[in-house]
Amino acid sequence: MLRKLKQLILPFFQQGLGPKELALCLSITLFISTIPLIGPVTLLLTFFIVKFRLNLPLAMGFSYVLTPVQLLGILFFIRVGEGMMGLPPLPLDWEGLQVLLGEGPRAVFQVLSERIFVALGAWLLIAAPVSLLFYFLVYQGSRYFLRRRMHG
Questions:
Q1: Does residue 121 carry a pLDDT above 60?
Q2: Using the 8-state DSSP alphabet, how is residue 98 labeled?
Q3: Residue 54: Cβ-neighbour burial (10 angstroms; 0-12, 13-18, 19+)
């Protein structure tokens, strides 16, 4: 039984280890793991990594490493999105939040949904080219190290 389980799991650890697959796996992980939303990362990442037959354990490990970047990125993308759309900054001090909460649930929902929307727009504009650049860097780097390893 243990042998069968090993045969079932082992391919997930071995697939997607060539330079192209490695670069694609890590760049997709970088792109998805920095989305300024808490929650959908693991599901989205698993879907795309399995669909492209890439290395799922590597992607999950890298995604967990990127969690602090995602959390800090939420505020960063909100601020960038506010600047792009000309919105006033969301108050993050206690007094500003009390004023916002005093305006009622509808106002809170409207302000927060606007900020999520502009954060997603900023994320898309920034994360896509950064992930593409990351792909090329990892691809060229892994090809270089593979050649050095093969030729001594």
A1: yes
A2: H
A3: buried
How is residue 88 annotated by DSSP? P
130-145 as b/e: b if 16+ CB within 10 A:
ebeebbeebbeebeee
Beta strands in 82-124 (DSSP E): none
pTM of the full structure: 0.83
Under a CB-based contact definition with an 8 Å cutoff, are residues 21 and 54 in contact? yes
Name the CA dihedral angle for 152, 57, 46, 118, rounded to a multiple of 10 degrees. -80
Q: Take residue 67 and report the two structure tokens written for it.
A: 């969690």
Give the mean model confidence (pLDDT) for residues 138-149: 87
Domain boundaries, the chain: 18-150
- Which of 135, 134, 144 shows the shortest CA–CA distance to 20? 135
Half-sphere CA count of 7, side-chain side, radius 13 A: 4
Helix (H, G, I), strand (E, B) or coil at 99: helix
Q: What DSSP designation does 28 have?
A: H
- Report d(CA 37, CA 15) in Å as an integer: 29
Report in angstroms the alpha-carbon separations of 149 from 15, 144, 146: 20, 9, 5
